[in-house]
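[Q] Does anyone have a clean structure-token version of this?
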Amino acid sequence: MYRSRRNFIRSASALAAGAGLVSSLPATVRAAVAASDRINIAAIGINGMGWSDLTSMLKNPGVQCVALCDVDSNVLNKRAAELEKRGMPVKTYSDYRKLLEDKSIDAVIIGTPDHWHCLQMTDACAAGKDVYIEKPVGNSIAECAAMVAAQKRYNRVVQVGQWQRSMQHFKDAIDFVYSGKLGQIRLVKTWAYMGWMKSVPTKPDSTPPPGVDYKAWLGPATTRPFNENRFHFNFRWFWDYAGGLMTDWGVHLLDFALLGMKAQTPVAVMAAGGKFAYPDAAAETPDTLTTVFEFNGFNIQWEQAQGIDDGPYNRDHGIAFIGNNGTLVLNRGGWEVIPEKGRMEAVPLQKASDNGLDLHTTNFAETIRSRNFNNIHTPIQAGALVATVSQMGNIAYRTGKKVYWDNNKNKFTDSDANKLLAAAYHNGYKMP
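[A] Here you go.
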């Protein structure tokens, strides 16, 4: 289905990227694309990034949305109406398993809360769908391993939504790190200082909003009374569903620290922090945290601070490769090299010049058609690695211990830490 007229589609994809939207292509091009190599896509979880991902995906010629799924009918009806206005009527579902039964669907976007990622991705692969999965891939180390195994077993294209890997200036920065010009790198700093993230005020439990299937939203998570603080965006700050800033922003930034150092899992991890900015907030995850990941010959450090914008090197987020000759500082805005005196030349700021999300979804569409798995920019293995490392940081924080990783046994040497390797599944659900 996907191999015919591949060169034409690739050329049309490049044209669409320049034009911005598929609707801006000439009618003859749109008709030709529609007649060949069409990708029918569906989206599960469409309130936030799931909708952004889908909107980006639809800029690619030959990609059309045929179905949406969300447990909040208010969101579902709103998104379906938006697509209807664009001349793209879709089927709607509240149960993703029913959506996966539709054999006309080639690929799915998963933009649900983190605690749903593992089940939905593995089920989608088993149903023969290619998958674009939002980060972090899993809500536990065990889930990450299960997701890697599912991709391998079912031989599906899986792209993780760590779209920085599709941006040219990130690639250029890592190439510079690989050049060796920085000298020995002994420390890599990563950080997210999020001034716009304010306190989550305590609110009483309540009934779910009309149109929300709260039981379906909980899924495998512990059954609790509905609370607005735990719903939609703020689910990130509760251990039942996610891992706070460490797994929200940390996976984006730690990914490049690991990539630049060609590193896998650390030898040991220690972490300290807490709810220092907002001690009375309803959130469970820390608003302030420093984590050190120990590797052989170097360390990677993670810092997070909610309510503050001015982080290291006057940037609110970034990665800094600190070498004997100089430091390369990288973030979504660009990269530069700050030299040690007399040891190397400075490199002025190399600014970002492209749209990472659009390039990432184009890469996914092209890989679906080519079936060349080596071309995917963020394979599930890479997404699982950084999610695993991020979970290690959270486990060190939650146990209050320096924890050591046994790479041969794929577990910690500490029993308390090992209790947090897998997320408990409830309500009749079982981990794949």
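[Q] Thanks! Anything notable?
[A] The first strand starts at residue 39 and ends at 44.
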